[in-house]
Automatic annotation (TrEMBL):
It catalyses: butanoyl-CoA + H2O = butanoate + CoA + H(+). CDD domains: BFIT_BACH. GO terms for molecular function: acetyl-CoA hydrolase activity; carboxylic ester hydrolase activity. Pathway: Lipid metabolism; fatty acid metabolism. It comes from Hymenochirus boettgeri (Congo dwarf clawed frog). SUPFAM superfamilies: Bet v1-like, Thioesterase/thiol ester dehydrase-isomerase. Keywords: Cytoplasm, Fatty acid metabolism, Hydrolase, Lipid metabolism, Repeat, Serine esterase. Pfam families: 4HBT. This is HotDog ACOT-type domain-containing protein. The keyword Lipid metabolism applies. One of its GO terms (biological process) is acetyl-CoA metabolic process. Residues 1-107, 169-284 form the HotDog ACOT-type domain. It comes from the Eukaryota.
Length: 436
């Protein structure tokens, strides 16, 4: 599917509004799903959207979608969005997304999907990865619950001392939309892409209230479709900022549908949920930090902690499927460069430790864990408070071989080669990482 970006598709800056490509993405993906299934399909979820470029007036948006893998009555559809400028050669990648569609039963009979025909090595790769992504989707709620229950996303009372914090309730946005015939798809249900566009609109307003400038959608954690709505329904959208992470913010959106009777009784149906990530730029094109959020109620603390848990899952997912870099991020050790490597390691670690961008990721009794993300490199810093004599602490820390005696994450630490008086090469074994 290809579209030309016109002024009515754009915001005040002449950039394509984020809701518009979400509508085009859902339409294209639905066409691909129904072509494979041969029957009507409905959107179950849309996730893993990372937006890298923004289209402008006059540019062309090209969207490609194909079924990566069917699973009985559901399937994963991969979507690739690119933009091209008529005055320039080539295309620029905008985003990649993955949608899950479910076949609609014919009467009372379920429609089971036929397998896809794999023709290229890329098809085989996407087919395999689709199974992994499905496993992650199915495990997502369990992983989220585990993180919330193990106490690693506690609300740190130290944050309350920040005088620049903003009450999360001040970012609350509510909006009502009446579903009209133009908003319905060819099946008579509210078009999924339209709902996503409305959700993005209220989420954008919520994020903008916090940063006092225009926020830009950077990624979508997940759009989850819980139930249908039809023409005549009133849709109530609620958006609120859950948490901020230095230069990004997570906004949660909830959608409830009401028919006329439900509207009178104020008993809605929860049909959609989403978590969207925004950033904001200053006049120089630099990303600006967001104010901290103060969680003042039990519900806001739950959302605050939930945002941290979801961010951990996003980071883990991102680095799990990160493509191999063209160049190594480390240099092989050799006798000829050991002095340079030693200096470089110490210098880089010192600068890294002193960086102001460390974010508190989780807290445990006497332990605080921080993360720092720079491009595609994730660094982790752990601070632990212990009661021990300075002499004993120096003795334990000065010899890496003693670390298994006090660090539960080290099973063994053996010297492979002595590179110099103060430099050694160690072989370290660690236990399996706890899955949560």
């Amino acid at each position: 599917m290809c579209h030309t970006v016109y002024p009515w598709h754009c915001d005040h800056r002449g950039e394509l509004s984020a809701g518009q490509p979400l509508m085009w993405i859902d339409t294209t993906a639905c066409l691909a799903a129904e072509r494979h299934a041969g029957v009507s399909c409905v959107t179950a979820s849309v996730d893993d959207i990372q937006i890298e470029q923004t289209a402008r007036v006059g540019q062309h948006v090209c969207i490609k979608a194909k079924v990566n893998r069917p699973f009985n009555t559901s399937m994963e559809v991969g979507i690739k969005v690119e933009i091209e400028d008529p005055s320039k050669e080539g295309q620029k990648h905008v985003c990649t997304a993955f949608s899950t569609y479910v076949t609609k039963p014919v009467g009372s009979t379920k429609v089971y999907l036929k397998p896809v025909r794999l023709q290229s090595s890329q098809d085989h790769l996407e087919y395999s990865l689709a199974a992994e992504r499905r496993r992650i989707r199915l495990y997502h709620q369990d992983a989220y619950n585990n993180l919330m229950e193990d106490g690693s996303v506690l609300y740190d009372i130290e944050w309350e001392k920040d005088n620049n914090k903003v009450l999360s309730d001040s970012t609350r946005v509510e909006s009502i939309e009446l579903v009209l015939p133009p908003h319905a798809n060819h099946q008579g249900n509210t078009f999924g892409g339209q709902i996503m566009a409305w959700m993005e609109n209220v989420a954008n307003i919520s994020a903008s209230r916090l940063c006092r400038t225009h926020a830009t959608l950077k990624s979508v954690d997940m759009f989850k479709f819980r139930g249908p709505s039809t023409v005549g329904d009133r849709l109530l959208f609620r958006a609120i900022v859950n948490n901020t992470f230095q230069k990004s913010v997570e906004v949660g959106v909830r959608v409830e549908a009401f028919n006329c009777e439900e509207w009178t009784l104020a008993k809605g149906r929860h049909i959609n949920s989403a978590f969207l990530i925004y950033q904001a730029m200053n006049s120089k094109g630099e990303y600006i930090p967001f104010p901290r959020i103060k969680a003042s109620t039990k519900d806001s603390i739950r959302r605050f902690q939930g945002a941290i848990a979801r961010r951990k899952i996003r980071v883990a997912r991102k680095y799990m499927f990160l493509p191999k870099l063209e160049k190594p991020i480390s240099h092989p050790w050799q006798k000829s460069n050991q002095a340079y490597l030693s200096y470089n390691n110490i210098a880089k670690l010192t600068v890294l430790a002193a960086n102001d961008g460390w974010e508190l990721s989780s807290t445990l009794p006497n332990i605080r864990i921080f993360t720092f993300e720079d491009r595609d490199i994730l660094s982790i810093k752990v601070e632990m408070q212990v009661r021990v004599q300075p002499k004993q602490a120096y003795y334990l820390l000065s010899d890496l071989g003693l670390r298994p005696n006090w660090d539960m994450h080290y099973l063994s630490c053996e010297v492979l080669e002595t590179a110099g008086e103060d430099d050694k090469i160690f072989h370290i074994t660690c236990p399996p990482v706890k899955q949560s």
